[in-house]
Specification:
Helix content: 25-40%
CATH architecture: Alpha-Beta Barrel
Number of domains: 1
Distance between the termini: 13 Å
Shape: globular
CATH topology: TIM Barrel
Number of helices: 13
CATH class: Alpha Beta
Order of helices and strands: HEHEHHEHEHEHEHEEHEHEEEHHH
Number of strands: 12
Radius of gyration: 22 Å
């Protein structure tokens, strides 16, 4: 059954991708924090349709009831003038809103009752018609939120949904913005979904941060090494028996909300500019993420972390190095940039190219473009062997909401560049990454390792006992189990 299900999924994806007249069925964005105009130009230049921004509460309401929308007004208008859609995550409270904390920071404190709902309502109302998708906080299961799970549910989840809908009924509320590298992310998601249902509320879209690795990126991976990307997503990891945490799709299914679309709003791989091995692995990671997205109609948007390296930290997650506020003159791109740019020519991502020239393995046979015998040439829009390029009308998982499509450029709302920096709120951006600690299973290989700013945490122990043949037996039992187990699709 697993094999037939995989074939059916592949046929749906390939058919959708081969109709030249079909609207995009997948979208790609980039994490930009609080971007200047040259960063927006770079997002447009690589071919992405969306940006995710840090809508920092402490910057918008520095004093209670005193709102300063100027920076974000300009940012949103400039993005829309370039045809980019904005997904804004509201978080990081001002000191005056804090209900108390135990560390030196105040931006991660639990907000006082009612205040998060208020800022969500004010923001949604102010940007109605310009921002249609809102995220609630960021990675609350890490130290970006200092409170307990229940405090997060009471002061962020429930208040946030109520606030956004009160300010803009048509706006989409996205969550939980959970980090799969954190502790008990499946438990936090399950608790939030149950609390929302009990209060007759619900997210419109499920968001997930997935930094787990792929076998192509970590070739020495074994089942005891930790979750792969697909394990955090929709397949239970198995070492003879199921192990690890519940995958995202299982938690959604358990709560009866598997119909909700999923956005991966953070994923990526560290690669210092000029490190050839790390850049190659980053490029492979990007390619594999997009290939997995094409297989799953319920996963509609991916936001890579991030567009440019943060110059305030040592860990380099960007696909470009920014030396000056000028695109493209001030940018040095990495290999992943070219991979992403080429992949977005795929019609499924809204491009005007063909499957046989997008740099992706569209048919899942391990071969790409000209190396695939199913490609008769660069203009062939079907990698499958022995199948004509015209495979009929595109299959669909239902019409995409109108708000999910990229908005045409609106030159009327463009404003002069007032000099907003890509590092606006730089200390906040640095704290986001510096707070991540631990081993780096997904991005250490080939990139010099390093634990600072970790996004990807390994589980268990890598390798196998010396002088033992039992891994072979495990592999055979694993194969038998996988043939019987259905993934959560």
């Amino acid at each position: 059954m697993r094999r037939w299900f995989a074939l059916a999924s592949w046929l749906v994806v390939t058919t959708a991708a081969t109709s030249p007249l079909a609207a995009p069925t997948n979208w790609v964005g980039l994490n930009t924090h609080v971007p200047a105009n040259d960063v927006l130009d770079a997002v447009k230049g690589v071919g992405a349709s969306w940006i995710r921004i840090d809508f920092n509460w402490l910057m918008v309401e520095p004093s209670q009831g005193q709102y300063d929308w100027a920076l974000f007004d300009k940012l949103v208008n400039d993005a829309r003038a370039r045809g980019l859609e904005v997904f804004a995550t509201i978080g990081y409270g001002p000191a005056w809103a804090s209900a108390g904390g135990s560390d030196a920071r105040t931006d991660n404190d639990v907000p006082k009752a009612g205040l998060y709902q208020s800022i969500c309502q004010k923001a949604a109302a102010h940007f109605a018609g310009r921002i249609s998708h809102w995220g609630l906080w960021n990675e609350p299961n890490l130290d970006f939120f200092e409170g307990t799970m229940q405090q997060w549910i009471d002061r962020v989840v429930l208040e946030g949904v109520r606030g956004i809908k009160a300010g803009c009924l048509s706006c989409k509320v996205l969550g939980p913005e959970m980090a799969s590298v954190g502790d008990k992310h499946d438990v936090w998601l399950d608790a939030a979904l149950k609390a929302l249902k009990q209060n007759n509320l619900m997210y419109d879209i499920i968001t997930w941060h997935n930094y787990s690795t792929f076998k192509e990126v970590t070739p020495n991976w074994a089942c005891w090494s930790g979750d792969l990307f697909v394990h955090d997503l929709d397949e239970q990891r198995v070492c003879v028996i199921p192990v690890g945490r519940k995958p995202l799709r299982q938690v959604l299914t358990d709560n009866g909300v598997q119909h909700l679309p999923v956005w991966i709003t953070e994923t990526g791989y560290k690669a210092p500019a000029g490190d050839a091995a790390a850049e190659a692995l980053q490029a492979t990671y990007y390619r594999r993420v997009l290939e997995e997205q094409l297989k799953r109609p319920w996963w509609t948007h991916t936001f890579f972390y991030e567009i440019v390296d943060d110059n305030n930290i040592n860990d380099k997650w960007g696909i470009a190095l920014r030396s000056s506020a000028s695109y493209p003159a001030g940018y040095k791109t990495k290999k992943a940039w070219s991979v992403l740019e080429q992949a977005l020519t795929n019609p499924a991502f809204g491009g005007s190219g063909a499957a046989c020239s997008d740099g992706l393995d569209n048919d899942g046979d391990g071969l790409v473009d000209s190396a695939d015998p199913g490609c008769s040439g660069a203009g062939d829009n079907d990698e499958r062997d022995g199948v004509s390029a015209d495979s009929g009308p595109a299959a669909s998982d239902g019409p995409a909401p109108a708000a999910d499509a990229a908005t045409p450029a609106d030159g009327a709302v463009s404003t002069p560049d007032a000099g907003a920096s890509a590092d606006s709120g730089a200390s906040k951006d640095a704290s986001r990454d510096d707070a991540r600690s631990g081993s780096d299973a997904g991005s250490g290989a080939g990139s010099g390792g390093g634990s600072s700013g970790c996004r990807i945490a390994s589980e268990g122990v890598s390798g196998s006992p010396a002088g033992s043949d039992w891994p072979t037996l495990i592999s055979l039992l694993l194969l038998i189990f996988l043939r019987r187990k259905r993934p959560y699709r």
